[in-house]
Amino acid sequence: MQQRDFKERLSENAEKVNNVLRGILADRNLIGGELGEVFKYVLEAEGKRIRGALVLWGCEVVSGQVNRNAEIAAAAIEMVHTYSLIHDDLPAMDDDEIRRGKPACHIAFDEATAILAGDGLLTLAFEILSKEIDDAGVAIKLVGQLAGSAGPAGMVAGQLADLQSEKTKGSEEQLEYIHTNKTAKMFQCSVAMGAIAGGAKRGEYESLCEYGLKIGLGFQVADDILDVSGSSKQLGKTAGKDEKAGKITYPSLLGIEGSKERAVKLAEEAVEALGSFGEKAEVLRQLAKALLERTR
Ligand code: GRG
User: Do the domain assignments include residue 251?
Assistant: First the structure.
């Protein structure tokens, strides 16, 4: 498959995820008032929907097709991811005013609204998994997977460690802990949820988990490189913030060239984890390579 096909497939999946998100919001009467307006603002912004796309592909790789449970799971992980960005931008956290090329949620509205919008999206994600997945056993597994990756055993722990690392010297081990938890586990969760929705066998689930963790870490290394080399316009968020905040990053520890080598190695390891799937995992191989070339 050519790179152009991959980009088309990513945007097709992003559109699918956007449609599911729109449908879910339209179906809920709580979305009539101000919170509805905020949800619309943050969810209609231009997210790449990589995590949602990964859920759909994870399901497709193990079962040959995308099913409705995978679509619901894709919407759920994008809600949790969007909550994390809203809260990350708050003054008490990373303190940023631009997100997805627009004023951050607390700038467009206010801080209290942004906190509540994040809380609302996080809760709604679990509500849709519990109510809209058509099999109780699958729903429980999806809830457990998402809670484990986004909560105190994953993203929340990584975020706290990240905030505490500011102005400390830091080691590569510490950096890997932060990014594995803050970023990579949500990527792992995406393919894992797809695998669960598609009825994966144990070995298939484990291979996809390994793949997800590697591309997630690779994505973060690329993010650190872009923070140094990209512009705010291109990134849709403020560039150059890591250095200003005195954060340890891959470029600060390994240099730009060393960071690029690390990203390539992670992409190779991700592809290796897909060994047993053969041709049907081609799109996931393409994604691992595309992450190395991303510009936003
Ligand atoms: C508030 C508990 C809590 C956690 C926040 C995700 C996160 C943790 C912070 C975001 C900081 C950041 C910029 C991390 C780099 C990697 C990353 C998650 C980038 C944003 O993901 P993209 O590029 O965003 O997929 P879009 O907007 O395309 O969805």
Answer: yes
The domain spanning residue 12 has which CATH number? Answer: 1.10.600.10
296 residues of the chain, pLDDT tens digit each = 455 688 899 999 999 999 999 999 887 765 557 888 999 999 988 899 999 999 999 999 999 999 999 999 999 999 999 999 999 999 999 999 999 999 999 999 999 999 999 999 999 999 999 999 999 999 999 999 999 999 999 999 999 999 988 877 788 899 999 999 999 999 999 999 999 999 999 999 999 999 999 999 999 999 888 888 765 666 566 666 666 677 788 988 899 999 999 999 999 999 999 998 999 999 999 999 998 877 66
Q: Quick check: CB of 223 below 6 Å from ligand 1?
A: yes
- 296 assigned to some structural domain: no
CB 265 within 8 A of CB 239: no
- Using a 6 Å cutoff on CB, does residue 220 contact ligand 1? yes
Q: How many domains does the chain have?
A: 1
Q: Is 47 in the pocket of ligand 1 (CB under 6 A)?
A: yes
Q: Whose CA is nearest to atom 27 of ligand 1?
A: 47
**Structural domain of 125:** 3-290
